[in-house]
Design brief:
single chain; 338 residues; alpha/beta; Rossmann fold; 3 domains; four-stranded parallel β-sheet; 8 strands; 38% helix; 9% strand
């Protein structure tokens, strides 16, 4: 939630926006108007990348105010798009907690978008939960609606709690952000510790370091938008890449200056105010090539979906971060179709 007590109306959050160009003076003025619930003409141009939350040095969470204004106006995307999304991700059956043995790995509803099967030693012994019952609803922030996500937060936390696990590993960055950032902010106590996939991978690599063979690749990392909520895990990724002999090239659109991948969810995210999604794809891939990357590495499967064709045409290999780790451990990757 937006914390007005932390906001000094400096305007830095909007001034640094890579998609809407504000002067320093205009950014402060426009955010003040938003805070006063005055109408602003730039809301539909927002890409909902959450960057302004990370840019705010005071921790005021300006994006939370922005998405609240979007929801109040009700015209960020058509209501039919939200309705179709809810139909797609609403569970069709009653929830029954599965029997859990060992560490739990949550896939949310992303498994259909993963390029390779989750097999091999890296995933042995894990109890995998997945599907609509575990959908985190963070997607709705990209549709200008926070209420749907927040209404689903407690029920989702209860489902995870019913598994009886002390720790739950989250493959989906959105899910981790929801449990590690939003849940404590809204007073939801979790009886389990949320673990990001980076932490799991790093611990596994440390335990099997004699099995690692350096991949000797130069890669660009495509940082997902939800990482804006949990930037503290970034050093873990750097350590993972060092372990497997991969160089993360220094480029313009990375870390705090990362750029939206250009995913428009088959048109769902297109709106009249901002339809530059193909341009963002061009910028990301061009930036990777210009800085000497031979591959693009992903954490979010939807980022992969947005950029894989552009990468292929540009000669860039594409990998999910955990699949790179599997390769370094000597595994052969087998696609789900094989």
């Amino acid at each position: 939630m937006f914390d007005e007590t932390r906001c000094d109306l400096c305007g830095d959050c909007l001034a640094r926006c890579p998609y809407i160009h504000f002067t320093a003076e205009a950014s402060a003025r426009e955010f003040r108007k938003l805070l006063n619930q005055e109408k602003v003409d730039w809301l539909k141009k927002c890409v909902t990348c959450f960057a302004c939350n990370e840019f705010c040095s005071k921790g005021a969470r300006p994006f939370d105010l922005i998405v609240s204004a979007m929801e109040a106006r009700g015209d960020y995307v058509e209501a039919e798009r939200i309705s179709s999304c809810r139909t797609l991700f609403t569970p069709k059956t009653a929830f029954e907690a599965p029997k859990v043995k060992g560490t739990v790995l949550s896939l949310c509803a992303i498994e259909p978008n993963l390029p390779f099967a989750l097999e091999g030693p890296l995933f042995e012994g894990l109890t995998i939960v997945k599907g609509r019952h575990y959908f985190c609803n963070v997607l709705y922030l990209h549709l200008g609606n926070e209420t749907i996500m927040l209404n689903g937060l407690k029920p989702l936390a209860n489902k995870y709690a019913s598994l009886g696990a002390e720790e739950i590993v989250f493959m989906h960055d959105d899910c981790y952000a929801l449990m590690a950032n939003f849940a404590p902010r809204y007073g939801i106590e979790l009886p389990f510790r949320p673990i990001h996939i980076f932490e799991y991978l790093l611990n596994y690599l440390k335990a099997h370091k004699t099995d690692i063979r350096a991949l000797n690749k130069r890669v660009a990392y495509q940082r997902p938008c939800s990482s804006r909520f949990t930037p503290w895990k970034e050093p873990m990724l750097d350590e993972i890449l060092r372990f497997i002999g991969v160089e993360r090239v220094v480029r313009k659109y990375d870390r705090e200056n990362s750029l939206c991948c250009g995913q428009d969810l088959n048109g769902m995210l297109k709106r009249s105010g901002n339809d530059n999604f193909s341009r963002y794809r061009d910028l990301n891939v061009g930036d990777a090539i210009d800085h000497g990357a031979e591959a693009m590495v992903f954490l979010c499967p939807m980022c992969l979906d947005a950029l894989k064709e552009k990468c292929r045409r540009s000669g860039l290999e594409t990998y999910m971060i955990y699949d790179l780790c599997r390769m370094a451990l000597g595994e052969q990757l087998h696609s789900k179709a094989s």
